[in-house]
């Protein structure tokens, strides 16, 4: 029999990990943690692909040396690509080892529920072999990649910065820096969560910054930006890596593109055959069932003319608004709203019965319509078929029997849902599994429905001319919806201008969109993340295959081994690999000093700082040989490699620029005498130098 294992690496829109700073866990049972002193979050976004670097500084404020474990609540859908840390005078960089992370926590085996809630469902764990001495500092830097949520030109980024379950006392400093490069014009950018230190928008580049001192980490960072709706089509970014940096023979070139159909009012929309399945078991009582009624009512009121719909609701027993899909019209809308208003929570959770009622109704549908189920539940299956693998097989058989292309979107509500089951139901049926907290039900589901309300291309396929593209993911491609994007990644072996053609069906007619995509023949530094994006999506594709096979079978073990090899080769953590202490201690000058450049035509020069030595301030000078129109970060490190300040300067045209460091640390504290390193980060090249503060 197939064995459904915990799927720790899932594709989701929403996660209910509401927190994001790491934790230094000394004793999970007694809630003993290292004290978080400061955090810096640096976000670099290239056309909705985000690279996030989160740096936290901890101090051992206990009265004795400690051993501890580091844990970071990685957002669901994100992929960790880097970890380095400082302890006892040395910087180290983690490698990836071919075994799952050790998820045991220090203590007696009964961790504080607040900690497990904080860490969420897909935490990153890392074992520290060194002892941290009294009053000593340790620094952790985690880097991960994720796709930013997008809808009708609006893009959101959230870094949940709520640390209250772990530590309520203030941090010395919190610094958030968000940089955005976009081929489409950025019409607006806003920091929704905090008062911004500065916000810059130059059309295709934007920057936002938040700086807090002596403030508790009690709320998320949230950015919203809006892209022009007049600039649609396909936006691509490509890079060709040197042979020494490509660990396989699939091609030196990597590409990712973002495609979006026209969301204008005149765009034709494909009719839907739609069913909403609502859990009304006893655990849905209280506010959850109210939100479920509200979400269902919203969906009914926002169906399109020509759609057919039905509603199935379940607890121990299963009922249905109608015995088959009915036309959306004013009479059926009124009747459906009255039906939804009667939902009351009681009884068990009969998931198999709900699908028994809902799926066969699609047998009379055809592939000229978008056939969609939205399924929401807050609990494990406790009635009907309760064995997970049998239930999944039962649902798969129901769908096959309809002989219709059916898309199923699953929503798990709260902390007691069968995530692996919902994920596999969705992934087996071209959908997405989404997990949310109890109070998010109405907002998330109504917003999601608006995203998939208007399909414009079904049964999507892709082709390339000339045929030099391989290893394209996701596979299969999702349907295209009005106002939504498709992100695709792949490989190539030679540079050329390639025609990308998206084919599909709309209104029983073949439809295609064609775009031009030039493939680079050189290594482009700002796109060095593309190999990791490709590896992330390749791993996700293989995981779907793996979890659909018999656990332990020869086929499953072969896929598992392939996932391990990709993870190790490309530095992207998977469920079968983890970060390990396999690096060597390195001084910060070895980690961040010096220049890096890959075929970059602009000229950068470090002109030093003056005075040097200095007290209390110094001016750092550099020159650029071309127009940048972006914010450049100047990071100040102390002698142990701790970032003590990040200065920013907007660089416009070519010329000489100066940045003054006033000799103050975060929080306005006067910096002590020390040797400091300043690193000027242009993204494509780094310049660095030393300076001495003498008092």
What does this structure look like?
With 695 residues, the protein is an alpha+beta fold. Among the domains are: 272-453, 3-Layer(aba) Sandwich (Rossmann fold); 589-693, Immunoglobulin-like (Sandwich). The chain is 17% helix and 39% strand. It is built from ten helices and 40 strands. The strands form nine sheets. Strands 7-6-10-4-3-13-16-15 form an eight-stranded mixed β-sheet. Helix 2 (287-301) packs parallel to helix 7 and helix 8 (530-547) packs antiparallel against helix 9 (554-570).
Give the helix proportion (percent range): 10-25%
Main sheet specs: 8 strands, mixed
Compute the separation of the termini in Å: 72 Å
What's the pLDDT, averaged over the residues? 85
Write the CATH fold name of the domain at 272-453.
Answer: Rossmann fold
Please provide the count of β strands. Answer: 40
CATH class of the domain at 272-453: Alpha Beta
